[in-house]
Amino acid sequence: MHRISDEDAYKYGIETRHDLMDSGERRFRLICSTDGSSYCRTVASEKGAWQSSHYHKSVSEIYVVQSGWMVYAELKEEDFKLRVLREGETVSFAPFVHHNIYLSTEAVIHTIKYGKSEDNDWYASPELDNLTQHLSSEALLSI
C-alpha cells in the first residue's frame, strides 16, 4: 500500500477542508468536487445548537450519530417533523426536503452527501428556521 498525497488526490477532484463554525462546531470535510459528493465529521461545540435550515436540489444526505444525540427537523410539503436520534441512529434526506440539525453538547456526527450536484447545491430554508431556532435542548428532549 502506498499513501496518496493531497496533491495527487486533488488531481482526481478530492480535497479536504476543515472549518471552525461561528457556533463553535468543528467540521472536518472530504470533498469530491467533481460530482458534489462529500463526507463530513462534525464535532459539536461545548453548547448545544441548531445548524442552519437548508435543502438541496440535487444531492441527498445521510446523517449518522457517533456519540451524544441530535435532533433533526424536516419540512416536506407542509409536513413538519422533529425526532431525536441517539448513538448509532441515522436519518437521510432526499433532494428538496428542507431539514435542520440540532447537536447536543460535544456530539459527534457523520454526514455523507451523494448524487450529482451543481456547484454549491445548498439553499437556505428560512421557513424551517422559523420553526426550529427557538427550540431549546430541554424542549427537544421532551419530544
Automatic annotation (TrEMBL):
<protein>
    <recommendedName>
        <fullName>Cupin 2 conserved barrel domain-containing protein</fullName>
    </recommendedName>
</protein>
<dbReference type="InterPro" id="IPR014710">
    <property type="entry name" value="RmlC-like_jellyroll"/>
</dbReference>
<dbReference type="InterPro" id="IPR011051">
    <property type="entry name" value="RmlC_Cupin_sf"/>
</dbReference>
